[in-house]
Design goal:
Order of helices and strands: HHHEHEHEEHEHHHEE
Strand content: 15-25%
CATH class: Alpha Beta
Largest sheet: 7 strands, mixed
CATH architecture: 3-Layer(aba) Sandwich
Helix content: 40-55%
Distance between the termini: 35 Å
Shape: globular
Oligomer: single chain
CATH superfamily: Vaccinia Virus protein VP39
Number of helices: 9
CATH topology: Rossmann fold
Number of domains: 1
């Protein structure tokens, strides 16, 4: 779960406040509830884009960065500059504490980012895309920010099917909210997480949305029985 939702002012403000409340226990709960597998998924993102991350002078933007776990993973993977963006100030305060080298953090709306066109070689978003109120608008903004030949990576919760599907849905709807509420003291936040996963499009649908927005070479791969998926796409050069 990552801290960015846009929509009406009222709903955005409520969600921003919700993420602010859980920020102190956010990292601990993410690692606990995923049994630390979320760390492996983030490293898989870095491996997917290692050609860009290893390029001196490259720039990356990590959207809906939350407390900066993926931002830091990207930064540690090469000599590039990484910027994290999120709309939840308490999350960014915690992210800044993880700063090691050249990363910076910007408090901003993912649908209206304060960066010029073609500013980045890589844009990533981990467990925040599903929270956007306007998926097509979010994809257009990400495409705008990429330089020709730049790439987008979306790491997001996905739908578990087959024999494990019912068990995972029970975990999402019944177990996860209770553990989250017990540790964070905020039942709303982790109930919200389960609902956003249930509403999120299938992996094939997200891939089609990316193509419709103008991305080429769109592909995805699933992790851990389909609990998460990494989608990637490229802004056409020229």
């Amino acid at each position: 779960m990552s801290g960015h939702v846009t929509g009406t002012y009222q709903s955005a403000a409520r969600v921003r406040e919700m993420f602010g409340r859980v920020a102190p226990r956010y990292d601990f709960l993410n690692h606990l509830l995923s049994m630390n597998i979320d760390r492996l998924w983030r490293h898989a993102v870095a491996r997917e884009f290692r050609d860009i991350l290893s390029r001196p002078g490259a720039r990356a933007l990590d959207l809906c960065c939350g407390t900066g776990d993926l931002t830091l993973t990207l930064e540690e993977s090469g000599p590039l500059e990484v910027i994290g963006a999120d709309f939840c100030h308490p999350m960014l305060v915690l992210a800044q504490e993880k700063l090691k080298r050249k990363s910076g953090f910007v408090e901003a709306d993912a649908l209206q980012l304060p960066f010029a066109d073609a500013s980045f070689d890589l844009v990533t978003i981990a467990f925040g895309y599903r929270n956007l109120a306007d998926y097509p608008g979010g994809l257009r903004e990400m495409l705008r920010l990429l330089r020709p030949g730049g790439r987008l990576g979306i790491l997001e919760a996905s739908h578990v099917t087959g024999i494990l599907g019912p068990a995972y849905r029970f975990y999402l709807s019944e177990v996860l909210p209770r553990i989250g509420a017990l540790i964070s003291g905020d039942a709303m936040a982790y109930g919200y997480f389960a609902k956003t996963v249930e509403r999120f499009p299938e992996a094939d649908e997200l891939a089609e949305d990316m193509r419709a927005a103008g991305f080429s070479d769109v592909r995805y791969r699933r992790f851990t029985f389909g609990i998460a998926a990494l989608h990637s796409g490229t802004r056409v050069a020229g």
